[in-house]
Specification:
Elements: E1 2-7, E2 11-12, E3 16-17, E4 26-34, E5 46-53, E6 57-64, E7 71-80
Length: about 80
């Protein structure tokens, strides 16, 4: 799980490191938003989308769909070798 900034700001994130580097390639990266901020428990009109990745790092785009967006934390699943 990674922090998505704990804010409502849309935009591209900085780089995150994979927990384990891939030797040759990352084939796919899936991310899901997880709101863990107890001060904003009902704000979910947003999404975290994988943007760019290499064998050792990645970044995401925080997309606001309207309403009261909140980017707490997100989970990831990566496939590679």
């Amino acid at each position: 799980m990674n922090s998505a900034g704990n804010n409502g700001s849309e935009g591209e994130s900085g780089w995150y490191a994979f927990p384990v580097n891939f030797n040759s390639a990352c084939f796919a990266l899936f991310c899901g938003l997880r709101n863990t901020d107890t001060n904003n428990p009902t704000n979910y009109d947003s999404e975290v989308q994988p943007r760019n990745w290499t064998t050792d790092k990645f970044n995401v785009y925080k997309q606001n769909y309207g309403g009261n967006p909140w980017f707490g934390s997100f989970i990831l699943f990566a496939i590679g070798r």
